[in-house]
Amino acid sequence: MAPRVLVSDELSETAVQIFRDRGVEVDFQPKLGKDKDKLAEIIGNYDGLAIRSATKATEKLIAAATNLKVIGRAGIGVDNVDIPAASRRGIIVMNTPFGNSITTAEHAIALLFAVARQLPAADTSTQAGKWEKSRFMGVEITGKTLGVIGAGNIGSIVCSRAIGLKMHVLAYDPFLSKERAEEMGVTKVELDELLAQADFITLHVPLTDKTRSILNAEALAKTKPGVRIVNCARGGLVDEKALAEAIKSGHVAGAGFDVFEVEPATESPLFGLPNVVCTPHLGASTTEAQENVALQVAEQMSDYLVKGAVSNAINMPSITAEEAPLLKPFIRLADVLGAFVGQVTESAIKEIEILYDGATASMNTKALTSAVLAGLIRPQVADVNMVSAPIMIKEKGVILSEVKRDKTGVFDGYIKLTVKTANQTRSVAGTVFSDGKPRFIQIKGINLDADVGSHMVYITNTDVPGMIGFIGTTLGNAGVNIANFQLGREKEAGDAIALLYVDGPVSEDVLDKLRANAAIRQAKPLVFNVD
Known about the structure:
Elements: E1 4-7, H1 13-21, E2 25-28, H2 36-42, E3 48-51, H3 59-64, E4 70-73, H4 83-88, E5 92-94, H5 101-117, H6 119-127, E6 145-149, H7 153-164, E7 168-172, H8 178-184, E8 187-188, H9 191-197, E9 200-203, H10 217-221, E10 227-231, H11 240-249, E11 252-257, E12 276-278, H12 287-307, H13 324-344, E13 349-358, H14 365-377, H15 388-395, E14 399-405, E15 413-421, E16 425-432, E17 438-443, E18 446-451, E19 455-462, H16 467-477, E20 482-489, E21 495-502, H17 508-515, E22 520-527
Parallel strand pairs: 1-2, 1-3, 3-4, 4-5, 6-7, 6-9, 7-8, 9-10, 10-11, 11-12, 13-14
Antiparallel strand pairs: 13-15, 15-16, 16-17, 17-18, 19-21, 19-22, 20-21
């Protein structure tokens, strides 16, 4: 059955057609986003939900979305999506961060000019029949210092445009490397240095706990007298009340704002102040940008629902359409390794280490780690997936670490999972052979080579004679057919393991007969999804 997507906000017909062309059944109801009760009533029928800003994907709506796999937001901001609720339900949340980057950057530059030359006020005055030439004395942009807070997609475009205007650009961004700054032609600085030197400041960061009110009263007091501030990013980055006071005092010469703490902004401390230019969140409001984000969200959602490719996800590592088929067998392997440990570990896990050796170290390890964690948790939480698993691990306070290293053994690449509980440490390693099937290559530090089957039995025992015969006879007498039987041992008369691939489930009675042997310490039934 083809996946079904509900489009509950305005999207272009071209975007809707992309879904259809890629084998996705689409239900186009662009007014439905405003009818939350009707939306909640039918959302359980869909695999995907495509939205803009009108639809509110609340916790209540997400709870009703029993089949939903992905929410796609045509735009950057996902304030209208309850991301933690979606993540707990295993729903991927995507946005389109590149579709309106140029448009938003251009709007920031436009506000920069408008504030520098007081254009809106001059326009109003002139059209009112006045000729107040001396009233609207502006400042030049050329040669001035622009402080850019946030040098990501949009911020970097602003930097490029500002350099073209012959401005000196300072950039504050904790994730900006020195090499990238040099490549962009900007000077990387700390925030206080930017505040002290910039003639103009523009913000291009998301709204988080760390960035909320990044320009508060204290920060504004550190700015250069006569500074002009532009915000086309998110409302709440600037304390509007504190900025209003700074403008009234004359410390800040002007401001251009496209976003506000409360939207729609019917009132703000900034309204009515001299040389404050305000627009109603127009950063993405160009014909090109609206079409671009619509096409992008349709492509992303279709690629995920049809091919398993994940791009621009807020709550899951990206998997490109090109790497999806190559990564798929290793995601299956990662899930199997996690499922093995999850089924044989009975006490609470304190630490998890995932080792990527050889070729696996250069793969998309974020996606592989998510798969490991999903397999690990699934024995306790059946509906966990790659989206919700990392959230659950984090909420449990488990210490998680990844290790990557060059090839060290005979395998081109393998994954090793080690978990620590209060009582013991468990480890399992596996690889993928040329047939694309996962294989166990090590358990408890003991080497072996074992196929992965839907039903398996894992046995730990002391290495003594007669164990193969005892295990085979016990299972044979119970009518259990063994498809594959692999053994390994630490040393003669030491710890040994047996991993059996069997044709069907093994009853608890049969397992008890195995456990009755004094040499057997553990006999665990295992179930894997290897389809």
